[in-house]
Amino acid sequence: MSALLSVKELTAGYGGVPIIEAVNLDVAEHEISVIIGPNGAGKSTLLKTIFALTARSDGEVRFSGKDITGLRTAALVPLGIAMVPQSRNVFPTLTVEENLDVGTYAAPPPDKEAVRENVLTLFPDLRGKLDQAAGELSGGQRQMVAMGRALMSEPKLLLLDEPTAGLSPAYLEIIFDLLLDIRNRGVTILMVEQNAKQALRIADNGHVLVSGKNFISGTGEALLNDEAVRRSFLGGAAA
Ligand SMILES: Nc1ncnc2c1ncn2[C@@H]1O[C@H](COP(=O)(O)OP(=O)(O)OP(=O)(O)O)[C@@H](O)[C@H]1O
Ligand SMILES: [Mg+2]
């Protein structure tokens, strides 16, 4: 199958210092792909570089067969890419409804009400909270607002940076179930996760990033069963 997203030899960093170096990865349409790796490995930097939020110094990004290298973030959203950042991913003083609306600015959908209705069927908890300030919500609910905002642009590819960070195990399961729902609606997902074992269980493919380089890629199952990956990145225990 041809890749929806193809990252080739991507190198990027801050102030001229490379953080990710010559990273290669492909994400096929309709799959869930997970990036795992230690703190500081460059996982967020990789996602941000794909979404043109970090300066790329070398390499190429292709989306739907088109070279999107060098395009600005505002140009990527109308093509069908959206991102949920790792932290500070809602506008706390805006209402939930206003937060969702922000997701339509870069690529206004023809029927905003219908798109919002679709998003609210995924996140019914938000329906009664549309007029509440997002900053007043629980961590899990805020994560749903952030995901909902990204989905308001009806993306083909959703980039998620640690969607379950700081959430209880119960909420983690809720978010992972939602990700499966979102994928089943036809959205391709590339996410970074610290809850590596659980994430690889729902993932089609995984990539282990170490010191800015792609250490190994494989199916979720292959990585869960890989001795070196288990020992170094999954706490050692059997999958
Ligand atoms: N805006 C920035 N300016 C300068 N250096 C940065 C910036 N953001 C990140 N870095 C550096 O880049 C390196 C990789 O950071 P990054 O956030 O990509 O790692 P990560 O794998 O997402 O880590 P974590 O698991 O903790 O989220 C770190 O050494 C970090 O200090
Ligand atoms: Mg990070």
UniProtKB/TrEMBL annotation:
What are the boundaries of the signal sequence? none
Please name one Pfam family that this protein belongs to.
ABC_tran
- Where does the record place the ABC transporter domain? 5-236
Q: Source organism lineage?
A: Bacteria, Pseudomonadati, Pseudomonadota, Alphaproteobacteria, Hyphomicrobiales
Q: What is this protein called?
A: Amino acid/amide ABC transporter ATP-binding protein 2 (HAAT family)
Q: Which UniProt keywords apply?
A: Amino-acid transport, ATP-binding, Nucleotide-binding, Transport
Q: Which organism is it from?
A: Hoeflea halophila
Q: So what family is this one in?
A: Belongs to the ABC transporter superfamily.
Alphabetized GO MF terms: ATP binding; ATP hydrolysis activity; branched-chain amino acid transmembrane transporter activity
